[in-house]
Amino acid sequence: MKLTILGGGGFRVPLVYGALLGDRAEGRVTQVALHDVDAQRLGAVARVLTEQAAGQPDAPEVAVTTDLDEALRGADFVFSAIRVGGLAGRAADERVALAEGVLGQETVGAGGIAYGLRTVPTAVHIARRVAALAPDAWVINFTNPAGLVTEAMSRVLGDRVVGICDSPVGLGRRVARVLGADPDRVWIDYVGLNHLGWLRGLRVDGRDELPRLLADPAALGAIEEGRLFGADWLRSLGAVPNEYLHYYYFNRETVRAYQEAERTRGSYLLEQQAAFYAEAGKPGTPALAAWRGTLAEREATYMAANREAAGVGERDEDDLASGGYEKVALALMRAVARDERATLILNVRNQGTLSALDADAVIEVPCLVDANGAHPAAVDPLPYHAVGLVTSVKAVEREVLAAAQSGSRASAVKAFALHPLVDSVNVARRLLDGYRAVHPGLAYLTAP
Ligand code: G6P
Ligand code: MN
Fold this sequence. Notes:
Blueprint lengths: L1 E5 L6 H9 L9 E5 L3 H15 L7 E5 L2 H5 L4 E4 L5 H14 L9 H25 L4 E4 L4 H12 L3 E3 L3 H12 L8 E7 L2 E9 L2 E2 L1 H5 L2 H4 L3 H6 L1 H7 L2 E2 L4 H4 L1 H10 L4 H17 L5 H14 L3 H7 L6 H4 L4 H14 L3 E8 L12 E9 L2 E4 L7 H23 L2 H10 L6 H14 L10
Parallel strand pairs: 1-2, 1-4, 2-3, 4-5, 5-6
Antiparallel strand pairs: 7-8, 8-9, 8-10, 11-12, 12-13
Helix pairs in contact: 1-2, 1-18, 2-14, 4-5, 4-14, 4-21, 5-6, 5-19, 13-16, 14-15, 19-20, 20-21
The structure holds 6-O-phosphono-alpha-D-glucopyranose and manganese (II) ion.
């Protein structure tokens, strides 16, 4: 079985390869094609993978290429994990927004819109090449903003593209752990859009255990979301929001913390990753050790400015283990390839699941996965406050998709202006001008 990884020179690729190495079952991946536009990054990551595979006689074979079509031919699965504009682009997404006094973040608010406007045209191109060259392949989209990008690709590939994120799984596992439940045996009632969802219940043998957690401030204080949002607010909501909702519920504080931070996440990562790739590319240096050290540092500093804004100190040891998005991807791939049924929280087309959204809107929801793909489970309706955010942000995503398709600047301005975290149409206009000035990837926005 052949797996193609687009963005194959990306930093998280060794996580995926590590998960593949742990898969001993019949029908596992035997060939991995890494594609990237940057040959130097590909070389460095390939060195890490070689060290990972050392001593494993039947490790999946790895091939690297900068030719997209070559990478896609014969693929059974395609992981798409690209970063259009690189980390320099991410840093610019943050900077331009923060200078306007609004949130600059990888996926949320103005920064996420800029990133989406740059990424959607490339994602659609990839989807078309997959449709032409590997029409039976399943595409697993990791590329952020993951919900929006998955929806763009689904217009070409239908339900053969599924988006993934590790944050809902991570949240579900943290809540299960603190309740003393087995994370693999619970039903997690979670729904929304990517990075905009709520855990409304956690059922163990049919019984909802979430009320027990919400009533216990000490237990809430033991998980990241409890510390970020505070027990009172979680009790008011009657749910545990995805950590990315911190940018909405504490917008003023997070924007200020981001503005005051010594450097943004994107600029920190830009420097950190450049050092890693330089090191790992040097012959004779232990690439795997360099990668592990860099990963540990990256995980420990994840959302540091949010914790700063909430005044909650260091990241807890138990929260460092993320949901493991490579594990989600592998479980999804196995469920589809071998008809091993699984329930996973995924980004798929709504198909009537949430009545406030149309059938084609990509949402994040528990799905039953089998050889026929991922099928959204029935869930309770969202409360009005959540419907409000979800429909507003979906409207923004639709404007991004319209702008990417038509090249219309008016649609791009509308995307910024309709976002709940952008507070003026004038700000939206300046944001678009600011982003167009720094991102060559937005040059396609030539229509009025
Ligand atoms: C979480 C999110 C991912 C995101 C990552 C960002 O896992 O769910 O969507 O890519 O964090 O982490 P970073 O280290 O790039 O800030
Ligand atoms: Mn994510």
